[in-house]
Amino acid sequence: MKLKDIIQGVDCRIQGDVAQEVKDLQFDSRKVSAGTLFVAQQGTKVDGHDFIAQSVKAGAIAVVCQHVPADAPEGVVYVIVEDSSRALGEMAANFYGHPSKKLKLIGITGTNGKTTTVTLLHRMFRQLGYHVGLVSTIVNKIDEEELATGHTTPDALELNQLLRRMVDAGCDYCFMEVSSHAVVQHRIAGVEFAGAIFSNITHDHLDFHKTMANYIAAKKGFFDGLPASAWALVNIDDKNGRVMVQNTRAKVSTYALNQMADFHCKIIEESFEGMHMQINGHEMWCRLVGRFNAYNLMAIYAAAVLCGASEDEVARLLSTLEPAPGRFQYVNGRGVTAIVDYAHTPDALQNVISTIDAIRRPTQQLITVVGCGGDRDRTKRPEMAQIASKGSDKLVLTSDNPRTEKPESILDDMEAGLTPQQLSRTVRITDRRQAIRTACMMAREGDIILIAGKGHEKYQEVNGVRSHFDDVEEVGRELGKVNN
Asked: Of 27, 251, 298, 352, which residue is least crowded by CB atoms under 10 Å?
């Protein structure tokens, strides 16, 4: 593609000839080859401007940058922009032929519920007979073909490549998680959404956003950028639901459990097997459990209807859907029920524990195994421990991806949130495998073990090194469901 076509619509200044042919688009200097357009991004740790000379030496014929360094090589075209990350998104969309406009892209943002919602929407629309893409924390998919995934939301280049593959495969829809990081870092710049969902906002990612106001503004930025042709669906039981759509051009619909909304749900009955519920007058039995999942199911129902599906058919299909991996996932053995859940924020942990508490019998103990991630928001650690202790009979504090932090320091932060009485029924075991084993040894027949924080993850990251670790495998082995 000619350079002038790649920079179409991008606010920029040009130094050089834009008529030449570009063979590739890259922001990683290590991937540059002959004929590449290199985009120099200013990251939090690395500045791409420092690698311009290296990229030109490797064959870059043009460079996108926020300023031309004094020692920049001659003989290439320089495209000067205000924000390289935003420009990358816009140029990636041009380079791959605006794939987001050639299918219906539905995004969901919020602290909790994103993975469950997009995963089950993907399954439902497959059952409705569509070709469907999925972009999620767990996996990316084109119909049933699984693709590797890294970030919750891919970078702008990877995202457009992925959407192009979906379009070429004939996909009608794509359901996608949109993280707050992705909005701020312009990973979705140049991408057009047909619909957007807001689930909720609770305490998370303050290591990155610094304040809740910044975090909320990041989520709101997603809705601010929607075109007038899109729809926006927001949970108005969350106080930030209406904030999200204050400045959107999209057509707004609402959902709620506690107040009147365009889509309203009532939970009639719930057990560990599922919920009997009613959405907009349609009754159904769903295999997901808990109020937090009632919100997810409402979002799925409403999004499907807003996409044009029949309400009767959507209600029927909701009853067939299984939970996403690592979301309230059961492992049973020796008369004990273990629940593995991704809950890694205070609100998510509270939701899971409250759900268990509403269903369990008085004779059933709840033993909770939980930790907090390293190199992340420290302020939520004592709060997580306090929530876990209040809702549990016994508590096991352990590691959850310490990354480059000392595991003991993380557990110290968690213990700081506990009273002496709570500490008396708390066990501290740094090794997660041993912590799960200990919880299983504590459990009597009929008891419930909650293993929170990692859910679907199949690794443990210590000192920057990832090793295989799967909570479902570990507890299954201890309860006799998996061979040693």
From this structure: 251
pLDDT digits (tens, 9 = 90+) for 257-304: 999 999 999 999 998 889 999 999 999 999 999 999 999 999 999 999
Distances (CA, A) of 142 to 94, 166, 433, 446: 22, 6, 34, 41
> 191-241 pLDDT, tens per residue?
999 999 999 998 555 556 568 888 899 999 999 999 999 999 999 999 999
Q: How far apart are CA 369 and CA 398, in angstroms?
A: 7
341 beta partners:
452
Average pLDDT in the 28-35 region? 96
Identify the domain boundary among 95, 111, 135: 95
User: 295 vs 237, 241, 351, CA distance in Å?
Assistant: 10, 13, 12
How far from 13 is each of 23, 55, 64, 173, 278, CA to CA, in Å? Answer: 21, 20, 10, 36, 57
Q: Are 306 and 175 found together in one domain? A: yes
Contact 120, 293 (CB under 8 A): no
pLDDT of 384 strictly over 90: yes
CA–CA distance, 417 with 411 (Å, rounded to integer): 10
Prediction pTM value? 0.84
